[in-house]
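User: I'll paste a sequence; please echo it back and then give the predicted structure.

Assistant: Echoing your sequence first, then the prediction.
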Amino acid sequence: MSIARIEKVQQILKKNGFATTIVTDLSSISYLVDLAPSHMGERLMALAIPQEGKCKLFINALYPTEPQEEFDVVYHSDSDIATAGLAEYLPAGKTGIDKFMMAKFLLELMGQRSDLEYRLGSFAVDEARMIKDEDEKEAMRFASKVNDQVIAMVPGMLREGMTEKELSQLMNKEYLRLGDPSSPAGPLICFGAGSAEPHHTTGDKKLEPGDVVLIDCGQTTFGYNSDMTRTFFYKSITEEQKKVYEIVREANKRAREAIKPGARFCDIDAAARDYITEMGYGEYFTHRTGHCIGRDVHEEPSVSSVNTDVVRPGTCFSIEPGIYLNGKFGVRIEDLVIATEDGYELLNFASKEIMIIE
């Protein structure tokens, strides 16, 4: 599996005229080779992928790593110049740099090898990661199934006077029980006016009758992420809330229906955005329609108005239109999908009907 993924990256490098690319993002390294690297802190871990042939992993000796079929290991110590081995190894030509590479290591490398042509190289790994293989698809399905199960428990968890943090803790217990016990979740819980903040911080707000309850939730389940948003209404719903909810639900539906052979990501965004604008709420839809997802919750590319890339089968991404009325309430409805040859596969089956929780 790892060899196939590396070869996919190498094909992309060759097509774009890169001699090598350097990968420092730990999530990408774990995708490419059979490693589960821990947080490296201030130390260097870099996987150098040549256009063809075996890779080399440059890593601090404090993190002993067995060589594998896909790569050899080159160690350095705290007393060494961390990038010296990497600088010596790199062949002449266009060299890809990871978008997450620490500036101190990049500048150090550039000082040692001023002859190289440095370019952003993350696109090669991003493109490979974008198309999920069958094992990855199955992992995404399982993670989303757990997410559906947990969100279905929320109506029974809600009680007047509980805080956003308390609901988050209750949901987290269920994620650990049903999903990956080694990966705690952190649901985004928004009560009342907090639901109008797309990136609200779960806090001590207490649940009151009439509150909108917006929950953006998911968990890393055995290396892959789920992500879903549902919006509930506690005790009652106003006509305005009902109207906004139905607009967002229809926008979600229209965006999903736009996932067809030849569709671009911007076309999917437009399907949701144009409808919300037509209904008079365009200025209150303040973010992109979605993002790709897999080992990371947010992966490249995005489902946005500026992304003209054609959607390719095997790409997993979110559809999450929203309307946010500052100081009042917000509604977002998010599902994950996998693009297929003739449309899409829906990963979330939790109800999108209006739900008033008594």
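Residues 134-157 form the longest helix (24 residues). The mean pLDDT is 97.
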